[in-house]
Write a structure and sequence with these properties.
Elements (H helix, E strand, L loop, with lengths): L2 E5 L2 E4 L4 E8 L8 E6 L6 E6 L6 E3 L7 E6 L4 E6 L8 E7 L12 E6 L1
Parallel strand pairs: 2-10
Antiparallel strand pairs: 1-3, 3-8, 4-5, 4-9, 5-6, 7-8, 9-10
Protein backbone atom coordinates (compact mmCIF):
# COMPACT_ATOMS: atom_id res chain seq x y z
CA UNK A 1 0.00 0.00 0.00
CA UNK A 2 1.42 3.34 -1.03
CA UNK A 3 1.42 5.80 1.84
CA UNK A 4 2.72 9.30 2.48
CA UNK A 5 3.28 10.29 6.10
CA UNK A 6 4.00 13.91 6.98
CA UNK A 7 5.45 15.00 10.33
CA UNK A 8 7.29 17.81 12.06
CA UNK A 9 4.59 20.45 12.34
CA UNK A 10 3.81 22.38 15.48
CA UNK A 11 3.08 25.72 17.09
CA UNK A 12 5.76 28.38 16.69
CA UNK A 13 6.02 32.12 17.11
CA UNK A 14 6.40 34.40 14.12
CA UNK A 15 10.00 34.39 12.97
CA UNK A 16 10.54 30.83 14.12
CA UNK A 17 11.56 27.73 12.18
CA UNK A 18 10.40 24.17 11.62
CA UNK A 19 11.51 21.20 9.58
CA UNK A 20 8.81 19.05 8.02
CA UNK A 21 9.39 15.49 6.83
CA UNK A 22 7.43 13.34 4.44
CA UNK A 23 8.18 9.62 4.32
CA UNK A 24 6.93 7.49 1.44
CA UNK A 25 6.04 3.86 1.91
CA UNK A 26 5.11 1.12 -0.51
CA UNK A 27 6.80 2.57 -3.59
CA UNK A 28 10.20 3.96 -4.38
CA UNK A 29 9.82 7.64 -5.10
CA UNK A 30 13.28 8.31 -6.51
CA UNK A 31 11.91 8.72 -10.05
CA UNK A 32 9.25 11.23 -9.04
CA UNK A 33 9.45 14.97 -8.71
CA UNK A 34 7.95 15.72 -5.31
CA UNK A 35 6.19 18.72 -3.91
CA UNK A 36 4.89 20.27 -0.74
CA UNK A 37 1.43 21.76 -0.66
CA UNK A 38 -0.60 23.47 2.06
CA UNK A 39 -4.20 24.16 2.88
CA UNK A 40 -5.34 26.90 5.21
CA UNK A 41 -8.82 26.89 6.78
CA UNK A 42 -11.44 27.88 4.26
CA UNK A 43 -8.97 27.90 1.37
CA UNK A 44 -8.01 25.51 -1.39
CA UNK A 45 -4.84 23.47 -1.31
CA UNK A 46 -1.96 25.43 -2.83
CA UNK A 47 1.51 24.68 -4.11
CA UNK A 48 4.43 25.53 -1.82
CA UNK A 49 7.60 23.98 -3.26
CA UNK A 50 8.83 21.23 -5.58
CA UNK A 51 12.03 19.30 -6.16
CA UNK A 52 13.15 17.24 -9.15
CA UNK A 53 13.71 13.51 -8.86
CA UNK A 54 17.46 13.99 -8.40
CA UNK A 55 17.25 17.08 -6.21
CA UNK A 56 19.02 19.30 -8.72
CA UNK A 57 16.07 21.55 -9.47
CA UNK A 58 13.70 23.27 -7.06
CA UNK A 59 10.86 25.76 -7.36
CA UNK A 60 8.88 27.78 -4.84
CA UNK A 61 5.70 29.74 -4.54
CA UNK A 62 6.42 33.46 -4.44
CA UNK A 63 4.96 33.67 -0.93
CA UNK A 64 7.66 31.38 0.52
CA UNK A 65 10.63 32.07 -1.75
CA UNK A 66 13.73 32.87 0.28
CA UNK A 67 12.22 31.52 3.50
CA UNK A 68 11.49 27.83 2.78
CA UNK A 69 13.88 25.18 1.43
CA UNK A 70 12.89 21.82 -0.01
CA UNK A 71 15.27 18.87 -0.05
CA UNK A 72 15.12 15.10 -0.41
CA UNK A 73 16.94 11.92 0.55
CA UNK A 74 16.09 9.20 -1.96
CA UNK A 75 17.89 6.56 0.10
CA UNK A 76 15.39 7.24 2.89
CA UNK A 77 12.38 7.77 0.60
CA UNK A 78 11.91 11.10 2.38
CA UNK A 79 11.39 14.70 1.31
CA UNK A 80 11.88 17.64 3.67
CA UNK A 81 10.71 21.21 3.92
CA UNK A 82 12.67 23.67 6.03
CA UNK A 83 10.53 26.60 7.10
CA UNK A 84 12.31 29.74 8.28
CA UNK A 85 11.11 33.25 9.15
CA UNK A 86 7.61 31.92 9.62
CA UNK A 87 4.65 34.27 9.38
CA UNK A 88 1.09 33.88 10.69
CA UNK A 89 -0.10 33.52 7.09
CA UNK A 90 1.96 30.31 6.82
CA UNK A 91 -0.50 28.64 9.18
CA UNK A 92 -1.93 25.62 7.35
CA UNK A 93 -1.90 21.87 7.08
CA UNK A 94 1.10 20.86 4.99
CA UNK A 95 1.05 17.86 2.64
CA UNK A 96 3.47 16.21 0.26
CA UNK A 97 2.87 14.30 -2.94
CA UNK A 98 4.35 13.99 -6.41
CA UNK A 99 4.56 17.19 -8.43
CA UNK A 100 2.69 18.39 -10.35
CA UNK A 101 -0.01 15.72 -10.54
CA UNK A 102 -0.14 14.61 -6.92
CA UNK A 103 -0.48 11.02 -8.07
CA UNK A 104 2.31 9.25 -6.19
CA UNK A 105 -0.25 8.01 -3.69
CA UNK A 106 -3.28 9.03 -1.73
CA UNK A 107 -2.93 12.29 0.14
CA UNK A 108 -1.80 11.75 3.73
CA UNK A 109 -3.12 13.33 6.90
CA UNK A 110 -0.74 16.22 6.60
CA UNK A 111 1.03 18.02 9.42
CA UNK A 112 -0.35 21.15 11.08
CA UNK A 113 1.79 24.28 11.20
CA UNK A 114 0.49 27.09 13.37
CA UNK A 115 2.33 30.41 13.57
CA UNK A 116 1.38 32.82 16.31
CA UNK A 117 1.92 36.56 16.01
Amino acid sequence: QVQLVESGGGLVQAGGSLRLSCAAYGRTFSTYAMGWFRQAPGKEREFVASISWNGYSTSYADSVKGRFTISRDNAKNTVYLHLNSLKPEDTAVYYCNSYPKGDFGSWGQGTQVTVSS
